[in-house]
Amino acid sequence: MRILLVWPRNERAVLSDELSRCEPLPLEYLAGALRAHHDVTIHDLRLDPPLREYAEANEPPDLVGIAVPYTTNVPVSRRASHEAKRLWPNVPVVLGGHHVTVSREWTDGFAADYVIAGEGADPLLTLIGHLERGTPVEPVTGLTPYEARSELRRTVKPEPATLNSLPRPDRSLLARHRNSYFHSLYNPVALVRFSAGCPYQCHFCSLWRITDRRYLVKEAERVVSELEEIEQRNLYVVDDEAFIQPARMLELADAIDQAKLDRRYHMYVRTDTALRRPDVIARWAEIGLDSVLVGAESMTDDELNGYHKGTSARQTREALDLFHSLGVKVRANFIVHPSWDEADFDRLSRTVEELGVDMPSFSVLTPLPGTDLYDEVRDQLVDDDPELFDCYHSLFRTRLPRDRFYDRLARLLVAAGSRGDGEETSDPSVFYYSDNDSFNRMVQAVRSGGFQEPSPPSGGAPLPEPELRR
Ligand code: B12
Ligand code: SF4
């Protein structure tokens, strides 16, 4: 079968493609599972031409897969599905990705025939089997006809509890864009996954619910052989929490060391995980851990408890000291609470300075679908537009006047961006930085409480259609 997998482009995203554009790893995983028996194309609308140009130059596909990677991307993914149906009216369209894995909200109005939830490879192979045999697709775990999507269940407990059983991602299909994928100071960058899931239960996070708090791992030998296939030196490890199993991480570090892989890693880690085993972080610093993303979230224990974070403000300070002593840069993310007043914003600015966070980033508390927070507050949200679930908008009433709230948020970014000791350095002092105007445009969008002014597409899908409600 000819299978076309499409990654959408959100030209209005506050965090624009000019500030971070990473390879569509989820589609590379699917391609890895399909490629032995099928002819797979990945079409990245952030870099490739619009679908109509693809259609002019290529044979029609037998199946189109449209990714819905974020809730914010619902409108552009919906638009891409309509474009695919217009170009190839008789070709089935299947949706998949994080948003449809965790939620059925806003899934009306797509031009789709099937929906897949959870790890996509097995359900996609099942679907292809039905299409090849001409047998009807009955709703099963992880796959359903589009009309029956409200019944869709994802696989919550994949068996066996290892990522080794998944095919490795096929990176060859996007060789043409390899040097166009970057993330902050990591340019070019490749995305890798060593584990999935998290045993903690943060109130605002959906990731632990996807695996039912289980932690799925890839064995060291397999990780090393995947890394050996990657040319890029910069590696963004997308694990939800990379260091949960210290013994395994030491084993992996040794295996990477023995293989003499010279790489720079950016990884997610909790403060308490790092403090429990500083030796593991030190070992990873030796083999190339360049920066960590820490969910600092707040500097008050009350707020941290409210988020069910399970860490304390003291641990944040101690962990930052640990990382700095090891020469590991820290991107710390702080949650900006809609109930904040001027003094709270002032306090966060001071905290970021005092802690010496290398690269601070800020997220407005957002009830992302698939979280406990979302389930609790769904009916209290002040807006129902999926594009607003980007962590730069407030879906709650703000204590400060809205204009002032967004102005203070923008000021946090500006202050972070202008930090530094004046020394010549190629590293930014804010995580999403740019050496052109992109960061300023992001700040503008945040300050206005709106979105980016769409720039001329470098390929890309057309503007989102007017929003359809759920
Ligand atoms: C890397 C990453 C990024 C990268 C870029 C990713 C990319 N390739 O472009 C960057 C840093 C740019 C980014 C940005 C954002 N991100 Co982000 N990101 C991630 C992260 C950590 C990993 C994604 C990944 O590669 N996962 C690994 C793959 C293999 O897993 P997978 O998605 O589950 O894929 C499988 C299935 O979903 C399915 N599948 C996937 N696609 C498809 C398509 C089809 C057709 C089918 C059939 C199946 C299928 O099969 C896949 C293979 O088994 C996830 C967290 C996570 N664990 O997923 C957050 C995550 C996706 N991001 C999130 C968010 C909120 C954002 C932002 C909106 C906010 C922000 N302020 O950062 C922005 C949006 C940017 C934009 N321009 O629109 C949320 C999404 C929540 C939501 N409901 O929207 C997540 C889940 C993290 C979280 N906080 O909960 N992100
Ligand atoms: S925010 Fe991080 S630590 Fe908390 S549940 Fe999600 S992945 Fe785990």
From TrEMBL:
Disordered: region residues: 447-470
Domain Radical SAM core per the UniProt entry, residue ranges: 184-399
Required cofactor(s): [4Fe-4S] cluster
PROSITE patterns associated with the record: B12_BINDING, RADICAL_SAM
Alphabetical list of SUPFAM superfamilies matching this protein: Cobalamin (vitamin B12)-binding domain, Radical SAM enzymes
One Pfam family named in its UniProt record: Radical_SAM
Keywords: Iron, Iron-sulfur, Metal-binding, Methyltransferase, S-adenosyl-L-methionine, Transferase
UniProt domain B12-binding: residue ranges: 10-138
Descriptive protein name: B12-binding domain-containing radical SAM protein
Keyword Iron found: yes
Zinc as UniProt keyword: no
InterPro entries assigned: Aldolase_TIM (IPR013785), BchE-like (IPR051198), Cobalamin-bd (IPR006158), Cobalamin-bd_sf (IPR036724), Elp3/MiaA/NifB-like_rSAM (IPR006638), Methyltransferase_Class_B (IPR034466), rSAM (IPR007197), rSAM_sf (IPR058240)
Source organism: Streptomyces desertarenae
Compositional bias segments (type: Pro residues): 454-470
